[in-house]
Amino acid sequence: MTLKDTAEEWQIKATATPFVGNKTSVRTDDVVMPGGTVARRDYQVHPGSVAVLALDDLGRVLVIRQYRHPVRHKLWEIPAGLLDVPGENPLHAAQRELYEEAHVKAEDWRVLTDVFTTPGGCDEAVRIFLARDLSEAEGERFEVSEEEADMELKRVPLDELVRGVLGGELHNNCLVVGVLSLVAAQQGDGLDALRPAEAPWPARPFEA
């Protein structure tokens, strides 16, 4: 049997949005359970994100180190960012993030994997891309601010990142999922068998 997640939506008796922030909000839904009871569910409403596992010709992954205030950590991550515009093409967003955070462009793009980051408390969906055939982007570097002004940038061998993930040293969701998915793809049908960059994404529909 092939396992596959399926879209489904249970009846909502009432809904409210008690908080609206700059990028996300909090929603409260009264949801009808299978037995007929009603349970209240609070969750963060999120526009969605993209992340980029950029792999160079030497087998190194481009990673950045950034302060994340909610968890009070500086985390090693892969370039990532929000889908700022509803219906935005995720590939275009990923190319933008790779340029802005690393001043790098890539010629070969594939979908590595799609994930819901914290489905028990947030509706965020993330598409993680694999980017290869890297080169320096043209023009001036993007001007960063706030936490991004303190970012570090490195290229790290893939096996070193795997050791860090399994050793409990690296914790960023997209880095962990991306690195382990890349290893699985390499050991499986190969990277060229990954989905094309414009593959449909039901969680965040877009126009090519």
From TrEMBL:
It holds the Pfam family NUDIX. InterPro entries: NUDIX_hydrolase-like_dom_sf, NUDIX_hydrolase_dom. Residues 44-183 form the Nudix hydrolase domain. Keywords: Hydrolase. The keyword Hydrolase applies. The keyword Hydrolase applies. It comes from the Bacteria. Signal peptide: none annotated. This is NUDIX domain-containing protein.
